[in-house]
Specification:
There is one protein chain. The chain is an all-beta fold. About 0% of the residues lie in helices and about 30% in strands. The chain has strands spanning about 10, 15, 20, 25-30, 35-40, 45, 50, 55, 70-75, 80, 85, 90, 105-110, 110-115, 115-120, 120-125, 130-135, 140, 145, 150, 155. The strands form 4 sheets. It has a 6-stranded parallel beta sheet with strand order 1-5-9-13-17-21, with no helix packed on it. A 5-stranded parallel beta sheet has the order 2-6-10-14-18, with no helix packed on it. Strands 3-7-11-15-19 form a 5-stranded parallel beta sheet, with no helix packed on it. The protein starts with 8 loop residues before the first strand and ends in a 39-residue tail after the last strand.
Length: about 200
């Protein structure tokens, strides 16, 4: 936890692999940037980012500043082959004037999200993206499904290529067909391989 970001891991470079980033929480004024992982550089590979929470005071947030990411907040770096599941982004004031700006699972301002599965996350507030809210960065070859948000764009708000999400039609190689996840909501199996 550094300056209200990265409840579990704060990463500016290097590499983490095969890590379980789970059950972390950041809560307080302007604390809505990566309940599990904040990444401005480096690489996270084949990790489980699950059951993390980011909650903050939306009234006193930084208006106009992209925030969010119940599970992951990215301003740079690379997240590859990871499972992002069961994370939550919420506003402690119930308002959305400057706080919960989307991305129950992932909020992106930069960086690359590739070969990831983003499922069962939730975002409160009026901004879209219960699964992913992308202000920038690259999303490629990801499954984004069964996420919840009050606003439109429940699963993925932003651009993606070669990915799967409900209603996703724009972008090269995208599909909107049900990925048929086995036993959704039950942890996706003990033998789960992130990114599959």
């Amino acid at each position: 936890y550094t300056a209200g970001v990265g409840g579990g891991v704060y990463m500016t470079g290097g590499r983490i692999r095969l890590s379980n980033i789970s059950s972390n929480e950041i809560n307080g004024w302007r604390c809505q940037q990566g309940g599990g992982l904040f990444l401005s550089g480096g690489t996270a590979e084949c990790c489980r980012v699950v059951h993390n929470n980011a909650a903050g005071d939306a009234v006193h947030g930084d208006p106009g500043r992209p925030t969010g990411g119940g599970g992951i907040r990215m301003t740079g770096g690379r997240v590859e082959g990871c499972l992002v599941e069961g994370n939550r982004l919420r506003s402690t004031t119930g308002s959305d004037t400057g706080g919960a700006r989307g991305g129950g699972g992932v909020s992106m301002e930069g960086g690359v999200l590739v070969n990831c599965t983003v499922v069962g996350n939730a975002a409160e507030g009026l901004q879209p993206g219960g699964g992913i809210k992308a202000f920038g960065g690259t999303i490629q070859n990801c499954i984004v499904w069964s996420n919840m948000c009050v606003a439109a764009g429940t699963n993925l708000a932003g651009a993606a290529t070669y990915s799967c999400a409900p209603g996703l039609v724009a972008g090269d190689g995208n599909i909107a067909s049900d990925p048929r996840v086995v036993k959704p909501g039950s942890g996706y199996g003990l033998g789960h391989v992130p990114g599959n």
